[in-house]
Amino acid sequence: MGKAKGQQEQGQITLKENGEFQPIELPPFEIVTGEQMSPFYFKFQFRNVEYSSGRNKTLLCFRVDTPGGITEPLKGYMEDEHATAHAEEAFFQQVLPKNSEAYEVTWYVSSSPCVSCAAKLANILQQRKNVRLSIFCSRLFEWEQPEIVEGLRALVSAGCKLRMMKPCDFVLVWETYVEKEDQSFTPWEDCKENYEYYMEKLADILK
Ligand SMILES: [Zn+2]
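^ thats the input. predicted complex w/ zinc ion below
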C-alpha cells in the first residue's frame, strides 16, 4: 500500500515513510505523492507528444541516492495541478528539505520545468552544493519561449544535468514507478521519433 489514491484534500499529503525521510508538516498544496502511479496516468501524462494538450500537470518520478550507495535509494512520484505549487519545488520542500547531507537526485518528469521552477531549481542547486540533480524529461514545456530557453540554460549552468527521456527511460519508469501488475509496456510507435525531435530542440537550447 502507501500509494496515493487520486486527488486528496488540500493540505493532506501521503508521504511514504522511509528511514531518514520523515513526513513533515506541509503547506496546503495539492500535491499527491506515492510510490507508484496508475498505468493510465503514466501512458497519458508521460507520452512524449509534440503538443501536450490536456496535460496540465507535472508528474515527477524521483530517485534519491546517497553517495556510495550506503542506504537504499528513496523512490516515489509526485504530481501537481499546474494551478498551485509545482512538483519540482514541492520535491525540495517535502521529500528533500534542506539539510547538509549529500544526495544524488534523479527525476523523470512528464515535462521540463516552467520558467519559475527553472529559476527556483537553479537557486536551490547554487545553495545546496552537495545535491546533484539530473532531470530526464518526456516533453519540453514551451520551449519556443525565450524565457524558457534562458531558464533552462541557467539551470544547466547551475549544475543540473538535463536530458530528454529515451525509449528505454520510459520502460524504466514503467518498471519502477507504475503499478502495472501483470501488464507489459512497449513504448508507443513514435516514441523514438519524438525523443529525437525533442533532443534536437534541447541541443539547440543548450548550445
Ligand atoms: Zn513549474
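The chain has one domain: 10-206.
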